[in-house]
Each structure stands twice: as C-alpha cells, then as structure tokens.
Amino acid sequence: MAQSTETTDWVSRFADEVIEESERRAPGKPVVVASGLSPSGPIHLGNLREVMTPHLVADEIRRRGYQVRHLISWDDYDRYRKVPAGVAGVDESWAEHIGKPLTSVPAPRGSAHPNWAEHFKAAMIESLAELGVEFDGISQTEQYTSGAYREQILHAMKHRGDIDAVLAQYRTKPKPADQKKQQAKQKPVDEAELEAAEGSGAAAEDDGSSGTGGYFPYKPYCGNCEKDLTTVTTYDDDSTELTYACTACGFSETVRLSEFNRGKLVWKVDWPMRWAYEGVVFEPSGVDHSSPGSSFQVGGQIVGIFGGKQPIGPMYAFVGISGMAKMSSSRGGVPTPADALKIMEPQLLRWLYARRRPNQSFKIAFDQEIQRLYDEWDRLDAKVADGSALPADAAAHSRAVRTASGELPRTPRPLPYRTLASVADITAGHEDQALRILSELDPANPLASLDEARPRYDRAEAWINTHVPADQRTVVRAEPDAELLKSLDEQGRESLRLLLDGLAEHWSLDGLTHLVYGVPKVQAGFSADATPKELPPEIKTAQRSFFALLYHLLVGRDTGPRLPTLLLAVGQDRVRTLLGE
Ligand SMILES: [Zn+2]
C-alpha cells in the first residue's frame, strides 16, 4: 500500500526534481532535505509548513525506495530574544536571560526539561511523532559547542572579506523583507525593537558586526555573562587568536578559535554553511525569501565559499488559523501543532498540507469550519474506497493516511465529526449516554464500545469543550416550554403529533432524517418520500419553521446541532416530554 503515486501531484513533481538533483550532486548518497525550527517559545502551528513540505517530499522519495534524511535543525543555539507572553511558569524575571543561547535559559517553572529550548522542542517532537514525521534532529548547540563546525568557522573567518563583500551589496538597502523572512523561518520578528533597545548596529544580528577591527561573521557568547552582546576586536588568521569584549558586563578575553567552542556564525552565514556541511538538496522557506537581500538569496551567494550549493527551495505561503485568535489572545499563548492535534486526527492535518501546493495559502480551522472540513475528508475517504477519486485527490489522501513506513493509526468507526461533536456537546462527558446515542445512529450495527469511535470522538469532544463558545453550546431544556406549547396553532400541534407518532419506528440517524424532513411534506399533502423536484418551494419554508419550533422546544434556541442527531442525543422519552406528549 505504500507505493509511489508517481507525478500525480506537487509532491511527486518535487520528488522527481530532488532525486535528480541529489544524483547530480552526490551520486549514490542518501537524499538530504532540511527544515529549521527555533525553540524560542511555543512553536507556532503556522511553522509546521516548514516541516511538512520537506516531510511529504522525503516520504514520496522513500516510497520510491531511496534513502532520505530529513534533517530538522533545532536553532537552539540562537540568542534568547524576548520573554514570550502567556507562557505558563514564566514571568518577567526571565528577561535577565535575554542574549544567552536558548539552551542556557532555564525552562519554565514546573517543566521536566533541563532548559528553555528542550522544553519547547519536546512538545514539537511529540506532535511530529503523532503526525508520522520521521526526521533526524540536529541540535545546533551540540554542533557548535562540540566543535563540529570548527573547520567551517575558521574558513568563514579566513574568507570574511568575501562574505563581507556579498553582504555589503545589501547593507545600504532597507531591509523590511528580511524581517519578514525572520517570521517565516521562526526567527525573531522584533529585530528593529531589539536593535533600538540594545543599541547594536543595524543588521549586526544577521550579518555580523563591523567593529573597529573590521568585519567578522562570528560572534562569541560572553565567557562571563553568557550573553552575545560581544564585539570581536581583533583576529589573527595564523594563530586564530581572537579577542572580544562584552558590552553587557565589560568582560574581555582572548581565545584561540581553533579550540574555542562558545560562539556561532551569524545567521546569514550560518544557514548556507549548514547547507554545504549537510549537503542539503531541498529546504523550503517562507515566501518572503524571494526578495533580494533575504537570507535565502544571500545564502545562495555565500554557500559557494563553503564549497556547497544552494538547495532547491520552494517558497511556501502563509498558513493561517481560523477561530483561534480570540481564544489564544485571552490565553496569551499561540496555537501549536499540539493544539491542532487535540481537535483533529493527524490524517486531517497531514491532508491540509498535502492537498495544497506550497505556494497556496490555507487556513487551519479551529472554528465551525472544522466540521465542514471533516465532511469533505469523509467524502474523499469514501471516494478513495470505491475507486472514484481523481488521481491528485487520491494522492493527497494517500499522503495523509500513510507514510513509507505504514498506515497511521485510524479510528475504527469514523462516524461523522459533526455528529460526534453534537453528541459530546449534549452528553457533556457522560460516556454511557454517548455510547447509547452513537449506537442508535445505526441500530443494525451498534458500537460495542466508545473506543471504536476513538480517537475521533475524543478530538470532537475536545473541540466542543475548548473552541465552541459557551453561548453556542447546546443545553437541552430541563422542563417543557409550556407557554410555547400552549401558543401553538392547529398546524403546529399536528406537526408535533406526526413527529411523535413516527418517533419509535424511525429511531436511527437515517430514519429520523427522513422523518423530520417528511413531516412538513405530509402536512402539505405530499408523500414523505417526495423528492425536492416534486415539491413546491414553499415546503422549504415550512421545513425551516418546523425545525425552528423543534429547536425552541428542545434547546430553547433558533438553531442547534442537526436535528436527527439532537433527537437521538436527547433520547426518546425526554423528546416526548419536551414536545408536550
Ligand atoms: Zn558579558
């Protein structure tokens, strides 16, 4: 089942290109694709595209029998830039660590992890496992502090003049695009703010500083205060002796770069160095990288200094989130992949990425839209099952449900998400009730246990509990609305009578659907089986007012979950009571 889906979608076309390019650059070697993530705080759901794009391509290449390494570079040796708002266990006292490597900042209080970076990496690693993303994680702290990049650092220092010349082409130009790139790559977005606050030279963060001793693409972390507010003052190519001074604490020392491991190349040099070091053939980046002066473009000019080549790098468009803004701002946090996986199965999330080309933007729904999305997914699933799906749709489906190493665990009985959400809404945590209702959906084939509907049921329940505002939750009336019942005219009373008379016989999802749509037809003198073509348009109006009446009597509002589901959820006895029998 894990066979290739050759050239039917954007993923396979990229796979063709990447395999060909890898064979040209490094014949017989595993194909290398890469992503970069900065654990500077909770990793935003929008940044998942940075991982999913190369993941899907890598997976297609694996399906074709090639060896692939998907590197995720954890930029955990980057400086801590600011204290993110709304993170539990963190207060303003964390500001004293600004300027240190992310791995030298304490984890939030109560965390089981040794430092800031590890804390936020752990959450992402867990989500990636759930999503079936296979990768090699590379800690940049480990790489730099172990001296893995020693040769590359010395090489960059030796060729600092060449690097400076490349960067100089862009220095005089305004750099708005570059700040956006930072966003796309999960790099800091508040560069201007920081520079103003810390008084460092413009572009120093990205490019390296031009101090009195000239330009240096390398920055040490201070030996006394651990911050990166250092300036290299002298460097000797022969002895590799480097002197730096710290503007934060005044500390200064001279070290030998051939044996010193506490510093890093500046970002615009660091990135292309790693392309060369790892032999990266494919690494996507945010859409703003198309502008001249962006680190992807500049990297393309610098990578040659390290003897490497720029990867194939599709620009990916922004992924938005709908329905989370209000919730997250009240909580102060950001939506993470873990938040999405609480309300949707990994297959659905994978599908959202697989079905859109990287340059198409889309939204991940935390609002009512998720129900429509699930309906669409179930329809596709059915088409794939009966062989009627279009090739590109079938390819996206295949990428969603399995990887080269096998199927993702799926819900044994994938009942409609909106039904599960309604049942969870109405039963409010009473699992026995939920099981009863779900079994009545299809009485001929009842559920043996709620587990058959899991994990989809749990996702729908989490969605109802965390993303549906209280005023949209369904509260079944405790007592009949005597006043409304008394005010009904003859037609209103008859409609309820017809419904109640058919209730026992139609007690299933399909049966009740037929019944609630049929009552207004029968009242107007047509058969309950009459199709829309055989009916006058007024029937629709009659159906709408009948449904509104039922909602009022059952839940005291104009609308609610789909009626057949609501009726099953409320239960036959209580329906009879509330409808005045
Ligand atoms: Zn210092």
Automatic annotation (TrEMBL):
One of the GO BP terms on file: lysyl-tRNA aminoacylation
Segments carrying motif 'KMSKS' region: 326-330
Listed SUPFAM superfamilies: An anticodon-binding domain of class I aminoacyl-tRNA synthetases (SSF48163), Nucleotidylyl transferase (SSF52374)
Motif ('HIGH' region): 39-47
Keywords: Aminoacyl-tRNA synthetase, ATP-binding, Cytoplasm, Ligase, Nucleotide-binding, Protein biosynthesis
GO cellular component, one term: cytoplasm
Family label: Belongs to the class-I aminoacyl-tRNA synthetase family.
Protein name (Swiss-Prot/TrEMBL): Lysine--tRNA ligase
Organism: Streptomyces griseomycini
